[in-house]
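Hello Y.,

Per our agreement to keep a running log of every chain we model this quarter, I'm adding this entry. I've kept the format consistent with earlier entries: sequence first, then predicted structure.
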Amino acid sequence: MSSAAEDASHEAGGAAGLAAGSRPAPLSDSDLSAWVEAHGVAARLVVPGSPTPTVLAAAAALGVAVDDIVKSLVFLVRGEPWLVMAAGEARIRYPALAAAWGVSRRRVRLATPDEALSISGYPVGGMPPFGHRRTLRALVDRGVTLPSRTLYAGGGTREAMLELTSDELLRVTAAVPTDLIERPDGGDR
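Predicted structure for the entry above:
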């Protein structure tokens, strides 16, 4: 899941990256489902019947609040990939990411769509919070971590969503809760 602004950022940087044919086939919702089952994760795939590539589209398709949708984004910190998760349309604050990682803002950037696909195996707009080609260290916005909250995250494709609780998300990803987003009034959360 991503916000429209983050989608635009991904698309703007998408030309740089891997050449066509030089990467393995993308993983799918079937791969994610198999991973969930193999690892005993309490989650289920939901296919709402319409594409869910953005937070707004996913919320509309599922009939849930925008803040129930978790976007999973790949960031590069000094060239090392990290997964960053936040709910809703709020923008992730780069200074907060840099502070969490103890680096300057210049050392943090959003992965291009090709980089995110190569690293995780999943396309932007369908990125799940786990089940990637390699295990990613993760940060999660504190707003996502309210106990026993039902959430929906990318389900491996732009047509599928993953339903799980905030407790299960934290258990499986071992994400570090951090204040990461801008509030609509411009303040920090």
